[in-house]
Amino acid sequence: MIEALILGFVQGLTEFLPISSSAHLRILGEFLPGAQDPGAAFTAITQLGTETAVVVFFWRDIVRIISHWFGSFTGRVPRNDPDARMGWLIIVGSIPIVVLGLLFQDAIETTLRSLWITATMLIVFGLILGIADWVGAKRRKLDQLTVPHGVLFGFAQSLALIPGVSRSGGTITMGLLLGYERAAAARYAFLLAIPAVFGSGLFQLVKSLDEPSVYGPVETAAATLVAFVVGILVIAFFMSYISKRSFLPFVIYRIALGGFIFVLLGTGAIQA
Q1: Which residue, 13, 66, 122, 244, has fewest beta-carbon neighbours within 10 Å?
Q2: Burial classification of residue 268, based on how many CB atoms lie within 10 Å of its CB (0-12 exposed, 13-18 middle, 19 or more buried)
Q3: Cα 136 to Cα 141: distance, rounded to the nearest angstrom
Q4: Ramachandran sector of residue 138 (left: φ over 0; alpha: ψ -120 to 50; beta: rest)
Q5: Is the dihedral of CA 257, 17, 203, 2 positive or negative?
């Protein structure tokens, strides 16, 4: 239970920061007394807690988007209404991760969880985030989001199926490269993650009923609750932070963590 609660805390702490929560759970599992990978299923289920935090934090936005999206079918709301369009853009942007997640499910749960891959992704995508934050125009607002850009955001989000990339980090990086403001890119990244994470988490939850897992249902539920509480606090901090500051501290952290993992793997301190 203590291990699960620690992992839940780390999940809530890292999910919304561009440093990859799945990488942190994968790495931390090696240093806990059990010394094992918590597993893709545990990671996906605890993400239900952090995505519930997104729903609570952006509740008014979500209700307005859903209402206007349905209203656009009846003519009550114009089809070009920004919130109605956002509903479609979230649907379009969610397609890539659904397709790729189903196609590569086995690799996601096995091969891609190697710590060699995780450390590499932390460094590589940390550098890409830094470059995007440096060269990005940061002028476009969220109401300027187009369907092609929504698809590109979606493909960037799908890279987070590999531990070390970061769902928010990959999506925000794409937004910066496309010229969107930091806060706009982050807001769309968080909204876009809702269907994907709830779909993945519920899918893994159903699967876990028939398959053995590292942590039992009580421990996993407790970890998910902790992730929810911590996640709400982190969202509030992160949205305030990025409106005024760059992503450089996260870039440095990612590179340092990736390098540290390479050292541990190279010396045999931990197994990949």
Answers
A1: 244
A2: exposed
A3: 13
A4: left
A5: positive
Decide: 94 and 226 in contact? Cβ < 8 Å.
no
Report the C-alpha gap between 108 and 100 in whole angstroms: 10
DSSP calls for 88-127:
HHHHHHHHHHHHHHHHTHHHHHTGGG-HHHHHHHHHHHHH
**Structure tokens given for 45:** 């289920």
Residue 140 DSSP label? B
Three-state secondary structure call for residue 272: coil
- The secondary element (H helix, E strand) that includes residue 160 is none
| Ordered mean pLDDT values, 10 residues apiece, the chain (272 residues) | 96 95 92 87 92 95 96 90 95 94 89 94 96 93 94 95 93 96 94 92 80 83 96 94 92 97 93 87
Task: Look up residue 165 and give its two tokens.
Answer: 């990339």
pTM for this entry: 0.90
3-class DSSP assignment, residue 126: helix
Q: Which residues contact 207 (CB under 8 A, 6 or more apart)?
A: 41
How does DSSP classify residue 97? Answer: H
Report whether 8 contacts 223 (CB < 8 A). yes
Cβ atoms 167, 157 nearer than 8 A: yes
Q: How long, in residues, is the chain?
A: 272
Name every residue whose Cβ is closer than 8 Å to that of residue 56 and which is 6 or more positions away in sequence.
232
C-beta of residue 12 within 8 angstroms of C-beta of residue 227: yes
Contacts of residue 230, defined as CB under 8 A and 6 or more positions apart, other chains included, come to 8, 9, 11, 12, 13
Beta-carbon contacts of 271 under 8 Å, excluding residues fewer than 6 positions away, are 30, 115, 265
